[in-house]
Amino acid sequence: MAKVDAKTAVLPDGLRYKSKVSGSPFKATTTFGAATMSCFLCGKHRPRSMMKTRKVLGKAQAVCAPSCKEMDEKLG
Questions:
Q1: pLDDT for the residue numbered 72
Q2: Using one digit for the tens of pLDDT, what is the confidence trace for 27-65?
Q3: Which residue in 6, 52, 59, 67 has a CA-CA distance of 20 to 30 Å to 37?
Q4: Which residues have CB under 8 Å from 69's CB, separation 6+?
Q5: Domain annotation covers residue 22
Q6: Is residue 49 one of the residues assigned to a domain?
Q7: Does the residue 17 lie in any domain?
């Protein structure tokens, strides 16, 4: 899936773009399991089904399962 390059131009006041797509690249999903979360360790967004919780710095955080390195190799 190719990403469309949006040409942007900052207005003279420096506050607005002439052409910028609004919204988030992460679509809202209707099911909880299909939502994505970012890994606490590597920061990449993954489906919740590909993550696990692990205690990091005394709090439960979502991280890649089984590890970030293995997920990168698996997904290419």
A1: 84
A2: 665 565 567 889 999 989 888 888 999 998 899 999 998
A3: 6
A4: none
A5: no
A6: yes
A7: no
Put simply, whether the predicted model's pTM sits higher than 0.90 gets the answer no
- How does 18-48 read in b/e, with b if 16+ C-beta sit within 10 Å? eeeeeeeeeeeeeeeeeeebebbeeeeebee
Cα angle 42, 45, 41 (rounded to 5 degrees) comes to 20
Domain that holds residue 38: 32-75
- How many structural domains is the chain composed of? 1
Residue 52 contacts residue 39 (beta carbons within 8 Å): no
